[in-house]
């Protein structure tokens, strides 16, 4: 009989997060430094949104013009706040959700990361990359 593991076995618990008062320049720096594509936005330990690297690309045209021109990015980033750019109506899962449940949810929706929340507190994040790596280990 096959056991279905909880998402807690594959989720990332070393959470890189932003606060609502952080700026988009800090977000871009975190995306690039940590080579990640999704960052939860928190108020203390409570998640209030999710920012993706794609969200930043939607508002910034600087990389298309000159990838080394940071002045244009800074100008555009100063026009918006994290709260204006982040996804607000997010879906989260508890750490007890099964890997199968999370995979089904990600397959049906248009996002690639889910915050993992227990008792209202952000405890991790699970991405499609985490699921692919999990499946590769199982094969």
UniProtKB/TrEMBL annotation:
SMART domains, sorted: CBS
Domain CBS stretches: 11-70, 86-139
Keywords from the named record: CBS domain
Keyword Cell wall biogenesis/degradation included in the entry's annotation: no
Keyword Repeat set for record: no
Tree of life domain: Bacteria
Name used for this protein in its record: CBS domain-containing protein
Organism: Winogradskyella pelagia
